[in-house]
Write a sequence for this structure.
């Protein structure tokens, strides 16, 4: 690519937006989880193997009848749904995550449901997420 003067534009490397929300357990536990923000994901998700590592500290899964279509077109059955309180940046919300095997691709995905629920605005120019309901000074950076 070149700019208007014909000078080459150096491509900036893009990285996934990583963040660490806290999931709250029934006895007041706070479980940190490395998550990828994916504004193309139509669900919030937790990898089954990752959930099994911390399941004793969280409320149990509820049954799910969902079959999920992956980006490669394959179908994966949901293991269940975790519903509970999440702290993410300045936000404290109750939300749900489908739990299913990611094949080790990720541990947690923050998808459109949580992004919409938290009124998140992703600013690609400075690689940050702002929470509109809390004003521009409340945000997180990648």
């Amino acid at each position: 690519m070149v700019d208007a003067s014909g000078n080459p534009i150096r491509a900036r490397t893009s990285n996934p937006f990583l963040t660490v929300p806290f999931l709250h357990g029934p006895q007041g536990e706070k479980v940190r989880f490395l998550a990828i923000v994916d504004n193309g994901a139509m669900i919030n998700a937790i990898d089954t193997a990752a959930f099994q590592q911390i399941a004793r500290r969280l409320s149990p899964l509820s049954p799910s009848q969902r079959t999920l279509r992956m980006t490669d077109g394959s179908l994966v059955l949901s293991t269940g749904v975790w519903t509970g309180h999440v702290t993410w940046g300045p936000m404290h919300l109750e939300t749900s995550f489908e739990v299913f095997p990611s094949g080790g691709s990720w541990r947690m995905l923050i998808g459109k449901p949580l992004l919409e629920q938290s009124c998140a605005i992703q600013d690609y120019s400075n690689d940050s997420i702002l929470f509109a309901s809390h004003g521009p000074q409340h945000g997180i950076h990648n």
